[in-house]
Hints:
Layout: H1 11-30, H2 33-46, H3 60-66, H4 69-74, H5 77-84, H6 88-96, H7 103-114, H8 116-136
Helix pairs in contact: 2-7, 6-7
Amino acid sequence: MMMSEDIKLNPVWVRYCSNRMEDWLSWSRKVHIRSYIELTERFMELHPHYIPSGTESNLILLDKMLMDRDFIDSLTDTGIKVWADSNLIDFVRALDIYSSRYPEIKVIANLFKRRIQWLDRVYRFARAEIIADLRNSGRQI
């Protein structure tokens, strides 16, 4: 996925990636990230129609990269609307900014690019649960 001048990045995902990058780098350097990628892809192949229960996917890599409820709770109502209206491609574009500098992030971004349909479907289920929780707590979405 090449970045071109006319693609606008989602500001919420850009901020999210910027805020989480240090933690992701620390974590990905402590574990064997390629093993996590391999296990995640095996899970995807064995469970092509997987649906998460609740706001966690039960996949460490996916939860680590996408399910930061504290960040979402810190957003304004406008920020939450921008986040809720976005898709996983917006996240991958924001993550891709770091791919050329950090090889471990490139490996993760490449997984998201290869498996975007599966990951986006799982993410949409988890996002719907988060949106319902936010509405129940009085947030305007």
